[in-house]
Amino acid sequence: MACLSYQTAGLSSSTTTRAVLAPMCHRRNRASTVVVGASSRKRGLRRLNAVAETAAMEAVELKKGIAELYDESSGLWENIWGDHMHHGYYDPDADVSVSIPDHRAAQIRMIDEVLRFAGISEEPPTRIPKNLVDVGCGIGGSSRYLASKYGANAKGITLSPVQAERANALAAAQGLANQASFQVADALDQPFPDGEFDLVWSMESGEHMPDKAKFVNELVRVAAPGATIIIVTWCHRDLGASEKTLKPDEKSLLDRICNSFYLPAWCSTADYLKLLESHSLEDIKAEDWSPYVAPFWPAVIRSALTWKGFTSLLLTGIKTIKGALVMPLMIQGFKKDLIKYSVITCRKPE
Amino acid sequence: MRLLTHNMLSSNIKGVTNGFPLRIEIEKVVEKPVDFNPEFLRNMFPKIEWKALVNAARSMGYVELPEEVEPSTLYSEDFLRKFHHALLELHLEEGALVCPETGRRFPVSKGIPNMLLHEDEV
Asked: pTM (2 decimals)?
């Protein structure tokens, strides 16, 4: 099996996590400037303050961009792909020219495989959630699936009012209105009291978070004692022992993807593990599932090139079109072992 | 937004020590029927902040919920129907949720609360 498992014992948590706080990709170099001496320290502080202000401004623009991208594109995605906005899980030797219904089945399988990885099972009943939060819920596919599967209550949050409305409508249509509800809120400032949920679920939303430390803080805060936390997210490859940053061509590939998908700077799986370790969480583990998602982007591109896909794309808007144009870059990123599909889980102590 | 959701929302504005429960400002309340499921209600009950639900229902015009609930009450159909109605069938379509400490209004539009904080509130 080609997937990479991480052992958390022995991972140093002393490394600074400031590296993961950079806002947009192209600002990263400036944020990592080293400052020495009194007068240059003052200049450095001014520069850091300027970067912090820029970061705050950019966070506002980023959130707006994310909301607008999904307001604009969710309908089109749902039309062709259905209500799950994440990668499917495929056997590595699967025939890649499968139909859209097969891809939708793969998306459901992804949820099931992730649950299994996190140690949640029905036979025997282990850590079955009753109250879950779906952080970055899209149009609520995961929430409704989990609510229905476990008879659980699900709360979803998204920056997109269009998505929240659609998610609530779908819940009502599926008879799940009393189990799944969706609101507009920020994953970095979740509108829930501490310790509210026994499953904290983030399925491919982490990539949008400009402040990974704050994102993880909130996931941990709203988790109840004993809760399971699951993060499925796109990361870049871990840096080697002597590496401080990615290579220039790697950075420029990610920058282009960032700009079109409204992503802030990427981090690595190792960065996430360090953050989780700093919260004294238990059973922290991660795997690289890139081999299991390989057919996904080619399938999305093919769906965009069908007559229905193409005409619908032209009718949505410039943000969606820009997003569609960088899809081949995702394939490139996976092929270069630069982009990783990372599945991360842990438990909050009782 | 139904009261089940309201019961789990809080204001996390910087500096606020107790942002729960949010006060409800009503512009439009709608009643939407939902299938009655006693088992679901009994399972939800331990997770509900009861006083907050009673007060929220009152502010929406529904005064039938008892202040106190004993374990045996959870098996009374009469009680469960009232609990069901308040928790799941009353919707705030238009209005606002108000932070109990700062008075900041979070708008509710088309039944969806917008809990996004402004830059100076984080």
From this structure: 0.84
